[in-house]
Each structure stands twice: as structure tokens, then as C-alpha cells.
Amino acid sequence: MGKTTTCVNLAASMAATRRKVLVIDLDPQGNATMGSGVDKYDVERTAYELLIEDAPIGEVIIPETSGGYHLIAANADVTAAEIRLMEFFAREIRLRNALASVRDKYDYVFIDCPPSLNMLTVNAMAAADSVLVPMQCEYYALEGLTALVDTISKLAAVVNPELKIEGVLRTMFDHRNRLANDVSDQLKQHFGDKVYRTIIPRNVRLAEAPSFGAPAMHYDKSSVGAKAYLALAGEILRRQEQESQPLTADRESI
User: Fold this and answer.
1) Dist CA 124 CA 54 (whole Å)
2) What angle in degrees, to the nearest 10, is found between the helix axes of 3-16 and 224-253?
3) How many domains does the chain have?
4) Cα–Cα distance for residue pair 120/80, rounded to 1 Å
5) E strand spans, the chain
6) I want to staple 73 with a disulfide (CB 3.0 to 4.6 A). Which of 33, 57, 181, 253 is the partner?
7) pLDDT tens digits, the chain, 254 residues: what are they?
């Protein structure tokens, strides 16, 4: 329960607050697509057509999903996009350029990246404003997270100097597990306020929801998993509101 679970459930939670949300599935497994109630085997256009065939983004976006957000789908065709991208000049900013015409139409765009670092991931980093890192509090997790943050920083220096770490999210958390609590404490020591206060617990409903083609809040809104992602959405919104206040104050004082 990591990146895709967080992408789909956070997107649905933001959509529930009446924010306009777009989810971009760049993982050839298409789990975010299926978890949004869209059959990856039936979609006519995916991220492949957007990145490789220059399909108009309006023709690729699926406007109706079970999560209440818009979707750019993925399936096995997207595997070929990684190879085909190497044919293009400025290959690392193909997604950024494709999004340019619709970026201002959405409050949030969530990108579900492939599990490994490749040209699709680079495109996501180049197009994004920030990176949200979900992680399980397990042995070696802190070392792995430190390496990931270093990789993101190196990528950002090349393709997107403005890219930042939005936050670190503890997922599949079991408060009864001593190791999980120890790792959680270490995370807070190393990353400070970058670690979200909201914790996503281990939850059967979160695990079941994808098989029913829906985010947890539309599968069982009373579940602790659904409530946790709603809480995360609220925390992110409050953080961003607080970050914008100094800018507002500065403008008023000029």
C-alpha cells in the first residue's frame, strides 16, 4: 500500500473538497487506472498517445471516474513509451509541455510514477511542482528514503530546479509495532516538519477498495483508511494556506 494507493485516495479526498483534480497514471501496470473504476483494457487513449503521438490532451483525459476526478489512463502500451521517448528532442519535458494548456484548469494534478527510475519518471519530475513520498516504517526505510531524496535532488537540478519534497507520508502503519514506532521517530528527527502528522494505518478496506474499482472513501467512507486520507487532504490544504499567508502579508505591506 504505497504510491498508487496514496495517489488514488488522496486525489479522491481532494475532489471531495470540491477541488478540481487530475490523476495521471504513468505506471504501465495501470493500477491507478483500475483503482479509479476505469478498465485499462478498454481505454482507447492513454499516456502513451499523449507523450508519443502528440494526441491533444483534451482527447486523452477521461472526465468520469469513481473517484470524482479526471484521469489520464495507463496500460501496457505505456511500457513502449519509455523506449519511444528516447527518439525525441527534449524528451524529458514532453509531459510538462503536454500539460501546459490545462495546468491552470486544475487545483491539483497527481502523477502515479512507475516503481523504477526511467524516462517516464523523469518526465513526471520535470512536470511536477513537488514530490510526496509514501513509505512504510520498516527496517532500512530511512536509508532508502535518504537515497530517494538524494536522487530526486539530483534529477531536479537537471530537469526542474523548482522541484521540492512536499512531504513524507507514513503508510501501512501499525502502532503496536515497536520497530514502526522507532522508524517513525527517526523519520521525524531527520526530516522534521516534512513528515506529515497524518498517518495511514494498515486497513483492510484500503486493500480491498482497488478490486472494486474505487478509492476507499467511495467503497467504505466510514473506514479508518478513508478517514485517514481525508485527514491528509485537510493537512495538505492547511499547510499550503499557511505557506501562502506570508506572501499575502508581504504584498499587503508593499
Assistant:
1) 17
2) 70
3) 1
4) 10
5) 21-25, 70-72, 108-112, 130-136, 164-173, 195-201
6) 33
7) 489 999 999 999 999 999 999 999 999 999 999 999 999 999 999 999 999 999 999 999 999 999 999 999 999 999 999 999 999 999 999 999 999 999 999 999 999 999 888 999 999 999 999 999 999 998 888 888 888 899 899 999 999 999 999 999 999 999 899 999 999 999 999 899 999 999 999 999 999 999 999 999 999 999 999 999 999 999 999 999 998 876 554 544 44
Q: How far apart are CA 184 and CA 170, in angstroms?
A: 8
Distance CA 43, CA 28 (A): 13
Helix/strand/coil for 202: coil
Question: Position of cell 488514488?
Answer: 8
The answer to whether position 215 is within a domain reads yes
Looking up cell 491539483, which residue turns up? 108
Task: Please enumerate, as own/partner, the contacts of 229-232 that have beta carbons within 8 Å and a separation of 24 or more.
Answer: 229/6, 229/9, 229/10, 229/12, 229/13, 229/200, 230/13, 230/16, 231/198, 232/10, 232/13, 232/169, 232/196, 232/198, 232/200
Instruction: Report the CATH number that the domain containing residue 86 is assigned in CATH.
Output: 3.40.50.300
Return the residue matching grid coordinates 471531495: 16
Could you tell me the residue range of the domain that residue 80 belongs to? 3-242
